[in-house]
Amino acid sequence: MKFSNIVxxxxxxxxxxxxxxxxxxxxxxFFSKPSLMLILLNYFxxxxxxxxxxxxxxxxxxxxxxxxDVLLLIEKQNEFLFVYGLTAFLAAxxxxxxxxxxxxxxxRGKFGLKIPLSLGIVSCSLIFYLxxxxxxxxxxxxxxxYSSVITLMLxxxxxxxxxxxxSFAKLYIAGILLFVLSDSILAINRFVVPLPxxxxxxxxxxxxxxxxITEGAIRNxxxxxxx
Length: 227
Description:
about 80% helix
C-alpha cells in the first residue's frame, strides 16, 4: 500500500482517537487507540518481507508500543498498570535504540560522534528529569531509567545517518523528535500539572512520530542489501 494511503487511513483513526480522548468516550478508545499501532504493524510487515533481519527490531518496537497503548488504556480503570505500560514503552525504545545503533554502525566511518550535540541532549534530559523529581514520588528510579533510554535512543537516532545524504533520514529525525516530545508532554501532564488537552497532544505527537519512524525504516531497509 502507498504511504499516502496509509497516512489517510492512519489520520482518520488518529482523529477518532483524539475526539474520543477529548470528550471522554472511553468505549470508542477501545477501537481507536489499539488500532493505530496495528495499522503501522500491518503496513510495515506487508512492506518488509524481503528486508534484512533488522526489520524485527521495528516489529518489536511497534508490538511493544501496541502493548503499552492497551495497558495505558486499561490503566484508566486500574492505575497499577501504568508501570507495566511504561515498561512496554521502555522495551519499544530499546528496540529503536538497538536498531539505530546497528544502522549507524554501517555509517560509522562517514562521520564521528557529535560531542557538542550529544552533551546538549544529555544536559537537556538531565535538567528535565531534575525538574520532574519533586513530583515523582516512588517513580524516581523508573523515570530515570526510562529517561536515560530515551536519551540514548535520541542520540543514536541522530547519529545513524547524514541527513543530507539520505531521503529517509529526515523522516526518522522528525519521528524521533515527535516521540520524545510525546513522552515529555506525558510526563508533565501526569506528574506535574494537567495540561489543557494534554492527552490529545500526547497522542498526536506519539502517533505521527511512530508513523514517520515506520516509513523511514521502510525506505531505509529497502536500500539495505545485507545486515
